[in-house]
């Protein structure tokens, strides 16, 4: 078997396993389901604040989250605390990009917490749970006039 065919075999068996888990019988059952989630950037909710959370009981201290955040995102995960290897999210830096969740090898070890009250430790701004986007943002000189 050539390498190319092996990759296709793995893709199809992986897809079949995922469909079984989700109880999909046919490809057509899920094609296009994510399309309604696509939107223009200016309509993203600027008030949506999330922070990553690491479950210390599940963490195997592999360090992948630290490396990913350090090199690619916002340097928001510790590597050492009080002289000990320890991975913890620094809320004042975390932008909730989800990258650490993607690289963590332990399922549900890192989750994202949606904050709805208080002050965002990163921006110092009070958290507003209401939806607000760029079309009405004060920094936008072309924002729609408030009604
Ligand atoms: S969500 Fe992004 S910014 Fe926050 S800790 Fe994870 S990788 Fe870093
Ligand atoms: S990637 Fe996951 S398991 Fe590894 S150190 Fe980070 S939180 Fe712990």
Protein architecture, described:
- The protein is α+β, with helices and mostly antiparallel strands.
- It folds into 2 domains: 35 residues, no CATH class; 96 residues, Alpha-Beta Plaits (2-Layer Sandwich), CATH 3.30.70.20.
- It contains 3 helices and 4 strands.
- The strands form 2 sheets. Strands 1-4 form a two-stranded antiparallel sheet.
- One iron/sulfur cluster binds next to helix 2.
What's this model, at a glance?
The protein is α+β, with helices and mostly antiparallel strands. Helix content is 23%, strand content 11%.
List the helices and strands and how they pair.
Elements: H1 3-22, E1 49-54, H2 64-72, E2 80-81, E3 84-85, H3 99-103, E4 110-115
Antiparallel strand pairs: 1-4, 2-3
Residues 54, 59-65, 87, 104, 106, 109-110 line the site of one iron/sulfur cluster (SF4).
Instruction: Please list the strands of the largest sheet in the order they lie side by side.
Output: 1-4
Radius of gyration: 20 Å
The tally of helices reads: 3
Tell me, briefly, the overall form.
Answer: flat
* Spans of at least 5 consecutive residues with low confidence: none
CATH class of the largest domain: Alpha Beta
Hetero ligands: iron/sulfur cluster
Give the N-terminus to C-terminus distance in angstroms: 66 Å
* Fraction of residues in helix: 10-25%
Biggest sheet descriptor: 2 strands, antiparallel
- Strand proportion: 5-15%
Number of DSSP strands?
A: 4
Under the CATH scheme, which architecture of the largest domain would be assigned?
2-Layer Sandwich
Helix/strand/pairing class, anyone? alpha+beta
Q: Give the mean pLDDT.
A: 93
Strand and helix order: HEHEEHE
Query: What's the structural domain tally?
Result: 2
């Amino acid at each position: 078997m050539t390498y190319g065919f092996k990759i296709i075999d793995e893709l199809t068996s992986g897809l079949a396993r995922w469909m079984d888990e989700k109880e999909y019988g046919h490809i057509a059952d899920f094609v296009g389901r994510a399309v309604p989630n696509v939107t223009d950037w200016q309509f993203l909710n600027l008030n949506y604040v999330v922070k990553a959370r690491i479950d210390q009981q599940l963490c195997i201290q592999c360090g992948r989250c630290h490396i990913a955040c350090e090199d690619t995102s916002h340097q928001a995960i510790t590597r050492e605390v009080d002289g000990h290897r320890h991975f913890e999210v620094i809320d004042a830096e975390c932008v909730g990009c989800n990258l650490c969740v993607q690289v963590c090898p332990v399922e549900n070890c890192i989750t994202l917490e949606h904050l709805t009250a208080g002050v965002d430790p990163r921006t110092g701004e009070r958290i507003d749970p209401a939806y607000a986007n760029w079309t009405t943002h004060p920094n936008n000189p072309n924002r729609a006039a408030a009604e």
